[in-house]
Amino acid sequence: MHSDQGSQFSCHDWQDFLKAHQLKPSMSRRGNCHDNAVVESFFQLLKRERIKRQIYLTLDAARADVFDYIELFYSPKRRHSNNDQLSLVEYERRYLLRNGTVEETWGV
What three-state secondary structure class fits 34? Predict the structure, then answer.
């Protein structure tokens, strides 16, 4: 369970809750607001591009839709400015090809 160093996340009640549910605490470094930047960016996109447009009748429907967003759109199709406008799957394929880790016939 990752959090910032706010008092609500460092108090004994919260730590007891984590232990009771077998969760491992993780805190960002003091004064470093960028620790969560990557994941916060992803969740902002997920909410904006998918979740805010949906009404889920069941938890299973929500899980399936988020899975579809990640596996069928975000990773294989959505272009990312930090990856030379390549999808995550294409970026990884090219990286593996450059490093001789995979053959050209890798199916994507």
Answer: coil
Query: pTM for this structure?
Result: 0.58
Over its C-alpha atoms, the chain yields an Rg (Å, rounded) of 19
Instruction: List pLDDT tens digits, range 31-88.
Output: 666 667 777 888 899 999 999 988 999 999 999 999 999 999 988 898 888 788 999 8
Q: Which of 85, 94, 89, 65 is nearest to 76 (CA)?
A: 89
Contacts of 66 (CB under 8 A, 6+ apart): 46, 50, 51
Work out the burial of residue 75: count CB atoms within 10 Å of its CB; fewer than 13 is exposed, 13-18 middle, 19 or more buried.
middle
- Residue 92 and residue 106: Cα distance in Å, rounded? 11
Q: Give the bridge partners for 3, in sequence order.
A: 27
Residue 53 structure tokens: 């447009």
Distance CA 12, CA 29 (A): 19
